[in-house]
Amino acid sequence: MASLLTPAQQKFFDTFGYLSLPGLLSDVIGEVIDAFEEVWAQRGGGHNGQAHDEESRSCIVPFIDQHPRLCALLDDERIEGLLCDLLGDDFNYAGSDGNYYAGDTRWHSDGFKQTDHRYIKVAFYLDELDADSGCLRVIPGSHHAQDAFSETLQKHVGQIEDTWGVDGRQVPALALTTTPGDIAVFNHNLKHAAFGGSGRRRMFTINCTQRFAEADLPMWRDYIAGGARFWIDRMYGETMMATASDRRMIHLEQGMEHDGHLAALAAKAREEMTEPSRG
User: Fold this and answer.
1) What is the pLDDT of residues 16-35, one digit of tens each?
2) Global pTM?
3) Sheet holding 105-108, edge to edge
């Protein structure tokens, strides 16, 4: 796979934990938005088959797996090239989520991990967004686990007003203004948030990881187990697996080989939860 990122961009990602790639998919974003809306229409319009109420986040997991056009994003040389540059040519597709967001999203990481294993998220925002209307905000450099700055953020991110005397909007950060077709990619450890969004903010993500060595497979199975809260029995959807080329299968095979425990965990979650997780 030909490299998409320059050496400078790769160093920027290593240092600051994110990249913004304006217009990367501007030529196909209309098709992507149409597929996004089609999936939601087929699934009842909102969370767990109900109408979206614009008061709470609606979420579908896995998301791109539901539509052939969205599955094919993993085959797009720009998306695959980006992922190969950051994770290696044999990276794992680790799932996706489609969302209608409502209101603010607090500061958080997508799993603050004390490990050198890299997990990243590719984010697709389908509306014009700025700092006042729900665009992604990031704290550059906050992804470095075991760094004193990052550890302090991790410790206090849940008590921002009590600790620093400000609200979430006032935390020093970079707001990534976005237009449909722009792509943002960031390390799962990175602190991020959004404020001022509407009750129907459209966004989906693709999550990927470096391939796991044999000794690290328990970590991979633990990650897969986290999908149980979404009431899914397999890591990947039927369409994703049925339409996979040999090349795409490289990114699916380690997940397909190690998700055998997920169905039982999902069955238990259905007994204990009133609805699948919203995120």
Assistant:
1) 999 999 999 999 999 999 99
2) 0.96
3) 105-108, 192-194, 136-138, 174-176
**Cα–Cα dist 13/245, whole Å:** 29
- Give the separation between CA 19 and CA 16, rounded to whole angstroms: 8
Q: Which stretches of 72-176 are DSSP H helices? A: 77-87, 148-156, 160-164
Q: How many CA atoms lie within 13 A of 115 on its CB side?
A: 14
Write out pLDDT tens, residues 215-225: 999 999 999 99
Distance of alpha carbon 173 from its chain centroid, rounded? 19
Contact 57, 102 (CB under 8 A): yes
pLDDT tens for each residue of 191-234: 999 999 999 999 999 999 999 999 999 999 999 999 999 999 99
- Alpha-carbon span 16 to 12, nearest angstrom: 6
161-198 burial, b if ≥16 CB within 10 A, otherwise e?
eeeeeeebeebebebbebebbbbbbbbbbbbbbbbebe
